[in-house]
Amino acid sequence: MSDESNEFPELQRLLALKRHEQPPPGYFDRFPIRVMARIEALELKKETTGWRSFLASLTSPSGILGFNAVALTGLALVCVSFFHVITSKPDDDQVVWAPTPSPRIPAWGTGRWPSSAVAADATQRPLSVTNDSSGAARLFDLPTLTQERASFVVPSH
Amino acid sequence: MASQPPLTPGPDELDDRPLVERARKRDPAAFEELVCRHQSRIYGLCYHLTGNHEDANDLAQDSFIKAWKALPGFRGDASFVTWIYRIATNNCLTHLKQRRNSLPHLSLNDLDANAENDPTLVELVSHHTPRRDSHLSELQKRLNEALLKLSEEHRMVVTMHDVQGMSHVEIAEVLGCNPGTVRSRLFYARQQLQAWLSDLIK
Question: Domain B13-107 class?
Answer without folding.
Answer: mainly alpha
